[in-house]
Amino acid sequence: MSQSDIIGIMNFTKKYLLLAALALALGGSACSSPQSKIALKRAHLISQQVYYVQPDLFKTAEFAPPPAPESAEQAADIGTIMEWQNKRTKADCKKAKKTAKATYDSFWGEKSPFPEPLPGEVVEFFERIALDLEEAVTNMKGRWQRPRPFKAYPGQAEPCIKKSSGYSYPSGHSSFSRVFANVLSDIAPGRRDEFFAKADEIAMDRVIGGVHFPTDIAAGKRFGDLYHAELLKSEAYRKDIEKMKALLVK
Fold first, then answer.
1. Coil, strand or helix: which one is 30?
2. DSSP secondary structure letter of residue 114
3. In the chain, is it the N or the C terminus that has fewer CB atoms within a 10 Å radius of its CB?
């Protein structure tokens, strides 16, 4: 996550903006409004607050690297991309485009265990997880700087959805959907299989759409489980999970 917007801000100004952002996020009853979510992100950027998991852990955490450029595994990766490129349908691409939005609704809309409209406390809980997680994923991607399929094979690999910026390994969508599947399973354990099946589907859409290699997806799942293990060590997370359970559809 870029910090360029806050470089050079004086301490007094930072404290003022943080208080203003928190006031906007917590004021009134519209906790799920776009303004409140923007305020949470602004407060996070200014304060560098860690909610549940320290993102810097993943600058050095032990994790297998992506396939070497000339390896058989890399050849298999691009082979799968091209296979899907030749057989995917308009419906496949439409579905991949929907999950590319990476919002709670696009991921879990019909699978959500919470009432509609989504309670503000739930929105803010997942936003807190996402803020820590986004930075952790960025740290992981920066370690290997693997180019996406359409950059590694220009003129050959052609996505049917919007070309994502940034590096490819591990897949952010795969990481997020896996972490959220784990989190939702902590809240509603009886639906674990359903959540994980949906996360796998979301991850596969990235290969079908042509913006990730299969090994990016596999790495995202491994990372998601690793990250969830760190979440479980957080007392704040465990307390919030109990709060979320009270908000489930009765």
1. coil
2. S
3. C
Rounded Cα distance, 49 and 149, in Å:
34
Whole-Å CA distances, 104 to 5, 125, 232? 26, 12, 21
225: tokens are: 């489980």
DSSP 227: H
Residue 53 makes CB contacts below 8 A (sequence gap 6+) with 132, 133, 136, 227, 230, 231, 234, 237
Q: With pLDDT > 70 as the criterion, what percentage of the chain qualifies?
A: 81
Radius of gyration of the chain (CA): 19
Both tokens of 170, joined, read: 């591990």
Domains and CATH numbers, the chain: 50-245 (1.20.144.10)
Measuring CA to CA, how many Å separate 7 from each of 15, 47, 93, 174? 14, 12, 39, 31
Other Cβ atoms less than 10 A from the Cβ of 92: the count is 17
Residues 54, 15: Cα–Cα separation, whole Å:
22
Q: What separation in angstroms does the CA of 246 have from each of 62, 186, 216? A: 36, 13, 35
Token representation of residue 216:
């990016």
Q: How far is CA 105 from CA 10, 112, 123, in A?
A: 38, 8, 11
How far apart (Å, rounded) are the C-alpha atoms in residues 17 and 48?
13
Is 159 or 48 the better-scoring residue by pLDDT?
159
Confidence class for position 30, pLDDT limits 50, 70, 90: very low
From the list 235, 226, 197, 205, the residue with the least C-alpha distance to 133 is 226
